[in-house]
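Hi there. Long-time user, first ticket. I'm pasting a complex I've been working with (about 543 residues overall). I'd like to know whether the download I got is complete or cut off, because the file seemed smaller than I expected. Thanks.
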Amino acid sequence: VAGALIFSRRLIDRTDGRTRQHERPFVDLRAAAEERAMAESKSKSEGFGVLQTMRQMRDAGMDAWAKATLRVTSSRPYQRVQGLVARPTLLATALYREATGTLMSGFLAQLNMPSRDEVLQVAKRLTRIEMTLDDLGAALDEMRRGDEKKPARGQRAAAREREVTREPTTTENGANAASSASASD
Amino acid sequence: MPVSEGAGPASLVDRLSTMAKNLVKVTTTKAPIGQSPKKAIWTLNKATLYRYTPVVPPEQRKPVPLLLVFALMNKSSILDLRPGNSFVEYMLGKGYDLYLLDWGVPGPEDKDNTLGDYVLEYIPRAVRKLKAVSGSDQFNLLGWCIGAMLSTLYASLRPNEGLKSLILLTAPLDFSKPEEISLARMTEEKYFNPDLVLRAFGNMPAGLIDYGAKMLKPVENFVGGYLKMFDILDNPKAVESWHAMNTWVSDAIPLPGQAYRQFIMDFYRGNRLMNGTLMIRGEKADLKNIKAGVLDVIAMDDHITPPCQSENILEKLTGTSDKEILKVPGGHIGVMAGSAAAKQTWPKVEAWIAKRSV
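Hi, the file is complete. Here it is re-exported in full:
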């Protein structure tokens, strides 16, 4: 009976998957194929009743273990113990690091070499320089875009010339204006 | 160990051989993740702004670009885990002009970086570049985990920089219920001194962050995950999926020391953002200042950022009327990278952003 049930379920799953395939986008298809593969793998391994029972027992055991462990690790006493262990360990690490840092700084100074802190300071300065350069680059881009939006110099001169020749009061000096404009260009 | 039914000895040998091959593969190699083609368009210190290569013709693309920001202590490749299970791939397929701000791996020289540095120095510059490259004055911002927190701070401190909408995924913003937040219990003042950690290491080491996250569900993380791997070892596709996720999980990165300290002091212990007392470089980070539309995505089974950490923030966002909560089943990472994400989370998030990308 169990075998028949598993077989019929798989048949339904496969048919269902086939009918829906045409409606799904690519990504969905991949996910669906994966899910089917996972389900098939699961159902294959569920083939033996004994194995299935063993797996269920294992999963139940894992669940109970997980809950019990979580109850312990999220409790106040556990946090306190963790704090008690962490504090001296971290303190020892910090003291060791500071001691070796001081020792190495002196040693490196004797060799005329920069210490770790000095190298780190240089790296920080480089980041600041990088930021300044980034701002300058952005400002230049902004100026370039602003220039692109404005008409070109030659076009501006021609426009000015057209305006001058159109206006009766400035017609007399039009040629001069045009020539001075083109000279300035 | 799973054994198939009705198979002859040859088939059994094949299966055992496949299992052995897969076991060697997952224990000795790293899966290729974050493979969608992208180009670095801006860098600052370790941070890089990438632009993903669009896959749809220009006329079908959304005019408003979307910027992705992930957490500081994990790699952003989770957004683009592997072909077929990638949020980036999905969004590119929908026609988004997609950008990713990758924080990179901090070194000892970055131990003094604060949240203010990331929010007021890095993000605004990346946004400036994004605008210059995309040609759009507006943009949408999607932040995940601490990336969502940074995005929220940015939106509140720089509300007039063209931010059209803000998508927050599992955002740790509200720390008013410490008894419901496992990490808050772990970092209580009585038991934990962040200054001692920073004095010892400078930055918060990746190993300690990983340990802390795994201790929230110790049996599942230290044992259950590997048992699951043994269960699927004869299935190459399932193994591929497990391998990709395991590669990402085991590739944590350190958190810059001062940013970590600020996170513990101002957020976990002070809850200053929600109380309206958070100061970033002398500027008040006030949620009321946010003018962009906000989608607050909550993962219902999240044990790292439980729902209580983000479900009440909409009340504080009085500067915008376009705000919505989306509750989806799944855990902190599974909500966006799990096998069900493509059906349950991505379409809903995309539909919301699509309305604000015109």
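A couple of notes from our side: The radius of gyration of chain A is 39 Å. The CA atoms of residues 109 and 115 of chain A lie 7 Å apart.
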